[in-house]
Amino acid sequence: MVLRRSEHPRAEDDADLWVPEGDGQLVGREGDIRDVTARLGGLGRVTGSLLLLGEPGVGKTALLAAVISRVRRSGVQVVSAAGAEYRSDVSYGALRQLMNSAVDRDRAPVLEGELAVVMGRKEGLPPDHTAVADAVVTVVRQLARTAPTLLVVDDVQWLDPASAVVLSQVARRLAGTGAALLCTARQGSEGFFELGGLPCQEVRPLDDPASEELLVRCFPALAPRVRRRLMAEAQGNPLALLELPVELTGRQQAAAEPLPERLALGRRLQSAFASRVTSLPAPTRYLLLLAALDGSGDLQVVSRAVAGQCGLKHLQPAERAGLVRVDERPSLHFRHPLTQSAVVELTTSDQRRSAHRALARAWAGTPERQAWHLAHAAVGPDEDVAVLLERAAAVIRRRGDGPAAVAALVRAAELSPDGQGRARRLAEAAYTGANITGDLRDVPRLLDDARRAAPGESSVAAAAAGAAYLLNDSGDIDTAHSLLRGAVTVRPGPNDPDDTLLVEAFHTWLLVCFFGGRADLWEDYDAAADFTVEPPLLAITRGTFVDPARATPRDLARLDDAVESLAHETDPLRIVRVATAGAYVDRLGGCAEGLRRVVAGGREGENVTPAIEALFLLGNHAWLTGQWSELHRFAADGLRLCDRYHYPMLAWVGKFLLACAAAASGDHTTARDLTDQMDQWAGPRRADAVRAYAAHAKALSALGRGDFEAAYLHATGIAPAGTFPRYAPHTLWTVMDLVDAAVRTGRRQEALAHVAAAQDAGLQHISPRMRMLVHASAALASESDEHPGFREALSVPEAERWPFDQARIHLSYGERLRRGKASAQAQRHLGAATEIFERLGAAPWADRARQELRASGRPGNAAPGSDVGLLTPQQSTIANLAAAGLSNKQIAERLFLSPRTVSTHLHQLFPKLGVTSRAALRDALQELHRA
What we know:
The protein is mainly α. Among the domains are: 3-202, 3-Layer(aba) Sandwich (Rossmann fold), CATH 3.40.50.300; 208-259; 272-477, no CATH class; 872-931, Orthogonal Bundle (Arc Repressor Mutant, subunit A), CATH 1.10.10.10. Helix content is 62%, strand content 5%. It contains 46 helices and nine strands. The strands form three sheets. It has a five-stranded parallel beta sheet, with helices on both faces. The chain has a two-stranded antiparallel ribbon with strand order 1-2. A hairpin with a 5-residue loop joins strand 8 and strand 9. Helix 26 runs parallel beside helix 28. The relative contact order is 0.04. Mean pLDDT is 85; it is low at 1-24, 492-497 and 862-869.
């Protein structure tokens, strides 16, 4: 769609008059156009008057142009005029413009009498305003006899006094003339046109979808984060949406360099928003400047800053002008962010620095806020302020506002007196960009600036930033590993700022080693870590994420404490790191709420990198708990962010989840495509973790197809049977896959060895899910039809939390029972498996369960819920306890469930038993047992 200037007379002066070529529709204004034409009487005829009210730049004139285009096509003739700022002294200037438009057409009316005098066409005494209004109405009637006529007057607040008085009278006397008046005015502006009594329609700002559409159409190269910032600044104002991007450099538009704290307004925006500010008294403008630069809205801060120079009563002119609103707290709110920007832009640099110094004094008790104001007031290097800013950045980063933390560090670097301090702070900004804000592509520039600031110097921050960039951008695991290994051998002193970054370097190094997945990488890491007192979270992660098969009870207890602490945690990095530590040991459920907060911050552009990781961790939890539609949503959102911000390494986590879901659902083509991509990418980079992802999904796909030989080869490709090697965490997720494939390919000894290794490692003590898998694997590996492992697995508290695993155990147990000629029992478990697989959408597994069900003597195509005997073991236990008279709470305490889970089970089993209440349970169960 091509954009053009509208044909409105004032279009050359207004940036908000861009309309789409062809249909004349404005972005987001179709509803407004329909409303205006309807209120004027509809297409093809007009009547009455209508005033459009709106803030500067909201698009009133553009809306007029669109309405004019629409009504002209329906046969309405239009005569127009417009008020002009600074030219209101020309008597009857606007009325002359309107009448000239009226007579400049075929069969034009003749201007006689008082109107001819006003138009300067004959000499005479100055006429009375009422007489002139009568003459104008007469001319309008003559025009309306030839065609319906619409009078259009834009910006009536700027009409000259004589025209304003006359047209005010005309507006109220058009009934029955076959003509209508449509005019616009700025909200809060004063003029001579009498607005009272006229029907009004407010022209509101564009909503977010329309604002984004306008920016995408007109500035397609804008980075998403920049687009969001402009939308927040413009608040739906079309003029601002079209003008603010023009003031940005190409690098700023592409998010290759940070945006300024306050966006430049440009000439048109300044003229639109500044005129009402310049007319305010000096004390009022000073108070507004303090409030604008502070941004907190707290008038107590402003009061401390002025220190008696003026009082808050001086805000009254700004309130009366509608520029600000003061509430009872008291707090000050600018009616529009662009007014706030205009207040700042109308001052000199000296005035702004002086105001920042005053605000720094007002924030003396809050170092973070004080540091910002001192930084803005500084005119040269200042190490004290740089230190304050660096500390503020740490606080801001823990709060999750990555862009603000980067801005603080960059400004601290600018204020650093020596090259070494400047280099270190730039490197820390690069690290923050790579690990929090998603500014991965900006990392090389910041690191180059750091190297130029201190040639030959190296720092832990630079190594951590460089390694994060290499890992996430190109997947260069070995170079990232070497960079960190060299950096952490140089130990900082106890008061060295690099000491605090050493922990961050180790967290980055841990991820490098994880994705590499090789013992030699971990040996270097462990050797370096032995010389360092590990912070608790890093130590927990080493135990439960790096090598969960050897996690100690103390590791798990410390992890549980960390998970519990997330309820009030605000640091997105800590939330993600705790959840990562819990991923392989089934603690993600307790982290879900915190992870959702991180995702919300990512959508606001504050912590993009943690948001990507949080989305995939939530997807991981959704995969294990059978919420596969949620899995697809989380994975898709995460992959979109990976693509937008260029995080190919993290993307493989999302693709692994999609491959698993595809494999389990029977979409083997998608699973194969995704796993092939993983192998092709991981091979040359020696990214063994990604290869383990691929092998896991391939094994799952092969099991679903019944290709057990391939499943065994893929599962043992992660680690040989009977082993749980160090630094191979993925082996925990394939315990039952490997045993199942081994048994079905005649490798019973390998299956038994793997079960023994799992039991020796104590995997059954890691989590209820792992206990369920170890018990089931033991039963699978056993030749005994009476092995208790299946029953023990299915009796694990809340086994239904992991429905895919639970259904596989039901299936394997039912197969074993059928071969042992226990058909009735087999049918119960095979029916349960069929029901769960169908609910999940695990098509190949449901087919297998139905085949086994038919082989047991029961039709496999019957709806599982139609058989009153089809209760899972858990449901059967709950039904019997409920029939015995126990309450939901008592049943929950006995079975280690929640009362809500018990209630859900009862609602599910009632229809299976053909009952509607607990009172009928006993008889229904007796009938079931007799059957």
